[in-house]
Design a protein that fits this description.
single chain, mainly alpha, 2 helices, 66 residues, Helix Hairpins, elongated
Amino acid sequence: MSDRETLKAELKKLSVKATQAKMDLHDLSEELPTNWTSIMVVAQKAYDVHAELERKHRELKALENA
């Protein structure tokens, strides 16, 4: 598998994780004030996966422009 194909596969998996993290954050917001203590954990997870998704998008763009 080429680097480009590998990155695309990683992006697909990360996209699914990012969508789930977004939904987890949304669900938590609807449950507030119940489970308010998990705000930081859920938000950090969403932040981390979206940051990784953005990094991988930049890697793919750089690879395609090379």
